[in-house]
Amino acid sequence: MKTRLLGGVVALVLAIVGAILLSSYVQAADNRAQAGMEPVEVLVVQQPITAGTTVDELKSMVKMQSFPKTAITDGAVTQLDDFKGRVAAVDLVPGEQLLAARLVDPKSLAAPNSVDVPKGLAEISLVLPLDRVLGGDLQAGDTVGVFISYNDGVAPGTKEVPATKLQFHKVLVTKVGTGDGDVDTTDSQENQSAKSSSSVLVTLAQSGTDATKTVHGIEFGHVYLSKENADTDTAPVDTLHKDQVLR
């Protein structure tokens, strides 16, 4: 009798303990669920945003919205003050949360082997044989001298004799490519020079007047480029004719 009574008491105690443990577990799970539902405000894209859009520009294109904590994407942006000077790295679509990883330094979006065009200048591209552009040994940011050479006289009514002149100094190269695609910077200069049938596409930044002269040289004569540096002599050079070469 005592044994059965003792067993009953133990069973009752175990039941009470089990109920307490179950209640604690349920309470903890409920707390966790409530914590996951805790609302958090993040910035959400409201209209299409193109890559390159600045943070200042996209301020009017995003809006704060509340989401359960469990629905927040890692890196979601809650304010834009920490991203001044950055731009959208990719196109963004309405409804997506704005992520920090998609706001980058604008320099990271620059095209490879290219530099910005100085204010007031325009770009002009020339396709030149390798032997007229240092075997292709040029890159964006270099400055070059532009030689223009004609087989005929340099002015109407003049005697038709060959003429050459170093017409421009310190012309900025903004882009470099090849006739077959972009320059392979991993290829050695020797290998690139060996491609005798290849040409180099060089883009220069010039004023309208200078660009017109360069185009004329390409259309009716020949153009050569020389790489210049900070110490290159930029004194004016007279037009040279054959009789002066052979003096």
What can you tell me about this protein's structure?
- The chain has 247 residues and is of the alpha+beta class.
- The chain has two domains: 39-109, Antifreeze-like/N-acetylneuraminic acid synthase C-terminal domain (Type Iii Antifreeze Protein Isoform Hplc 12, Alpha-Beta Complex); 122-181 and 197-246, no CATH class.
- Helices cover 25% and strands 28% of the residues.
- The protein has five helices and eleven strands.
- The strands form three sheets. Strands 5, 6, 7, 8, 9, 10 and 11 form a seven-stranded antiparallel sheet that branches.
- A hairpin with a 2-residue loop joins strand 7 (163-178) and strand 8 (181-182).
- 16% of the residues are buried.
- The model is unreliable at 179-197 (pLDDT under 50).
